[in-house]
Amino acid sequence: MLKINNLSAAVDDGQKQILSGLSLEVPAGEVHAIMGPNGAGKSTLSYVLTGRDGYEVTGGDVSLNGKDLLEMDPEERAAAGVFLSFQYPLEIPGVPTMTFLKTALNAQRKARGEEEMKAPEFLKKSRALAAELKMKPEMLKRPLNVGFSGGEKKRMEIFQMMMLEPNFIVMDETDSGLDVDALRIVADGVNKLRSPERGMLIITHYQRLLDYIVPDAVHVLAGGKIAASGDADFAKKLEAEGYDAYAA
Amino acid sequence: MPLDLNTLPTRRDEAWKWTDVRAVAKEDRGGLSAAGLPKFTLPDGVSISEASDGASQTDTPMASLARSISGAVWTVTVPEGFNAKDPLVIEGLSRGHIRIHLVLGKGASLSVIEHHAGDASSFVNLDMVIDLSEGASIERAIIHDDPESCLRVATTHITAWAGAKINQYALSFGGDLSRLETRVAVMGKEVEAVLNGAYLLGAKRHVDMTSYIDLAVPHCTIRQAVKGVVKDKARGVFQGKFHVRRPAQNTDAEMRHDALMLSDTAEIRSKPELEIYADDVACAHGNTIGQLDESALFYMRQRGIPVAQARALLTEAFVADVFDDMSDEPLQESVLGKIREWLGA
Questions:
Q1: Where is the domain boundary, B274, B291, B308?
Q2: Which residue of B has its CA nearest to A80?
Q3: Do both B249 and B337 map to the same domain?
Q4: Do both B23 and B108 map to the same domain?
Q5: Which of A154, A206, A224, B225 has the most Cβ atoms closer than 10 angstroms to its Cβ?
């Protein structure tokens, strides 16, 4: 599904190399976790995969289901099914959450040559999902993320993810800012999205989230590349022993 | 008698330093030396008269030009206590010198919609006087949509007596050179005024939103929020002044001007001023000039919204809130529609 081959990337106008020769493959139906020390390039990886300006790819390639992702604009990648749950979701003043999400959903559908989702269907689906995620209905009327707590913003990311039904999900530090109850709700939502057609990459500093979303594989990102890989138990070992052994 | 171009304001006049009328006023502009012919749609119960002489309450250079060339004054009167159901619509502000006088009796209320749409290459000089008696209330919507070649100066002088209310919403797309100026003399206590506006400018368009609020009595409230969006080689000017005289204690006044520069060849000139002589007042002003938030743009694109649409949504959200409190919802929707149309173009 997602194939990253020998990927290198830099920031600060190419001055600062962050990723150097990272290779990783996430087959459809699997959930992979990426762990690693602060500053290892975990967030950089999420931005390179989604095409953020300022993150310059200096080598390698990335494909999703055989399609070259690096050639695409961010919105084209989104329409191709890539979703990033942001570590720090943005506030969009003046744009009501429902307007934002309906615009996004229908823009993706249009880009894929599908029919737009009509308002009644959209409303029905969003109300049902909001209830499932224990979100207050009035949150959907407010401007996106404006005045939301950290936990509410993360829940909103999951809500968007469930509405947009992407086929590859990148979650960047989704557990930060969540208490245990919220974490369980978020993890339930994510687990529901696991399917044989869908892949996920979970970027996390702590192992805690992986108790709730059990990964098929765990990788250590250090020194700009994958330094070690293992199964779900490997995360527990990393949590106990730290990342010193993998320091660049 | 043809207008002597040298009587027009130039950038040497401090108040006109960013809007040089003389420089763009050529002899061949339509209406330069002629009276204009406005068109009024009157609500029931409101009367109009044309008199060749009116009170000469205004003393700006543009006002005296209007006086000497247009001659007549169109006077619209709303009787005491009368609440006009339908709006007064003013159109035909397309060329020439025009004088309009709106008189609202005690406790009267009126909603005015002004369509400032000029002829190509024309010259428009509108001098408007509004008298608000005690407790009178006016809501003004100004829609300024000129061709790119039109030169327009529209000056409004409002006198507000005790308890009067002003709600003004201006939307401008600029012109060759244009200035929308509002001057308010607050003469009675407990006047409340909202003076909001937005300008969206492309190509080489220019608009100047200038205001001068003179407060001479206590307990008045002024709220002013102007938003600007400029792209290409357009130029936006904001000049705002609150003059709070010594007796104007407990004045509560806020002025904001916030502008977005969508290209670095566009220009914003801004001069917010507070001149305060009273010692017990709450007055504030703020002025920002910025760009669209790149992080917000990326976030929207990551969700699949194409970049042009993301920019338009963010810009609309930025501008639209100055029109939030318009009482006429269909009119508000039409204002927002015009903004969307501009953003989509």
A1: B291
A2: B304
A3: no
A4: yes
A5: A154
- Taking each helix axis from N to C terminus, what angle separates B307-320 and B329-344, rounded to the nearest 10 degrees? 140
Domain boundaries, position B54: 5-291
Same domain for B300 and B211, yes or no, is: no
C-alpha–C-alpha distance, residues B289 and A160, integer Å: 32
Asked whether residue B286 falls in the same domain as residue B315, the answer is: no
Collect all residues with Cβ–Cβ distance below 8 Å to B334 and sequence separation of at least 6.
Answer: none
Interface check B290 vs A, CB under 8 A: no
Cα–Cα distances (Å) from B209 to B140, B224, B235, B245, B268, in that order, read 15, 12, 11, 23, 11
Q: What's the pLDDT score for residue B67?
A: 87
DSSP-derived pairing of the beta strands B235-244 and B267-276: parallel
A-B CB pairs within 8 A amount to 72
CATH number for the domain formed by residue range(s) A2-246: 3.40.50.300
Residues B141, B217 within the same domain: yes
Are residues B181 and B232 located together in one domain of the fold?
yes
B147/B279 same-domain check: yes
Token pair listed for B222: 């002024």
Q: How confident is the model at residue A241 (pLDDT cuts 50, 70, 90)?
A: confident
Per-residue pLDDT of B130-156, as tens digits, reads 999 999 999 999 999 999 999 999 999
* Three-class SS state of A112: coil
Q: What angle do CA A111, B303, A78 make, to 5 degrees?
A: 50
- Distance, CA of B313 to chain centre: 25
State pLDDT tens for residues A128-146.
Answer: 999 988 888 888 999 999 9
- Select from B293, B309, B314 the Cβ nearest to the Cβ of A107: B309
Verify whether the Cβ–Cβ distance A90 to B309 is below 8 Å: no
Closest partner CB to B301 (pick from A75, A89, A94): A75
Do B275 and B306 belong together in one domain? no
CA distance A79 to chain B (A): 6
Q: How many domains does chain B have?
A: 2
